[in-house]
Design goal:
- This protein has a 5-stranded mixed β-sheet with strand order 1-2-5-3-4, with helices on one face.
- It has one domain (3-9, 31-158): RutC-like (60s Ribosomal Protein L30, Chain: A), CATH 3.30.1330.40.
- A hairpin with a 2-residue loop joins strand 1 (31-34) and strand 2.
- The protein contains 3 helices and 5 strands, in the order αββαβαββ.
- Helix 2 (65-87) packs parallel to helix 3.
- The chain has 160 residues and is α+β, with helices and mostly antiparallel strands.
Length: 160
């Protein structure tokens, strides 16, 4: 399977590397390869040029559940872009192992799983169920970096 072609067929575009907002520095790797694993840092949606795309704020008072779900989908594309930069070829991905999603949630918001489905659904859509299926956590938190509505990290297995 040619993953880059599949991404294009689905109408998706992988963004450039994340650009730090003024006065902020990213002091970590977006994707760290160790053996046959890729540890993917928490990603949020990015514009094509790598700038933060939002939405920003708590779900559902400031950001709708649908917008949060779309943000999770776009976080998957940002994560894939980082993985591609780390491993060169997305066809090397042999399994998505775990996904951890965090939603900037209002107190009592219980639909974090629905929001993070945006990430999971696009991964399975791109890679198919054999490679794309994964274990997952979706939690609500009081705040996220830069007031993002969604942040998602992952662990991926790759072929040598």
């Amino acid at each position: 399977m040619n993953i880059e072609r599949r991404i294009s067929e689905l109408g998706f575009v992988l963004p450039d590397q994340a650009q730090a907002p003024p006065g902020f520095e990213f002091a970590f790797e977006w994707a760290r390869v160790r053996g046959n694993r890729v540890y993917v840092s928490g990603h949020s949606p990015l514009h094509a040029d790598g700038t933060l795309a939002g939405p920003f704020g708590a779900v559902p008072s400031k950001v709708t559940l649908d917008a949060a779900t779309d943000a999770a989908r776009d976080s998957a594309l940002a994560a894939l872009a980082s993985v591609r930069r780390a491993i060169g070829d997305l066809d090397r991905i042999s399994a998505w192992l775990t996904v951890s999603g965090m939603v900037n949630a209002d107190h009592g918001f219980t639909q974090t799983t629905t929001a993070i489905n945006g990430f999971s659904d696009v991964v399975v859509q791109i890679f198919g169920p054999e490679i794309g299926a994964h274990a997952r956590t979706a939690v609500g938190v009081a705040a996220l970096p830069m007031n993002n509505a969604v942040v998602v990290s992952a662990e991926i297995e790759i072929d040598g």
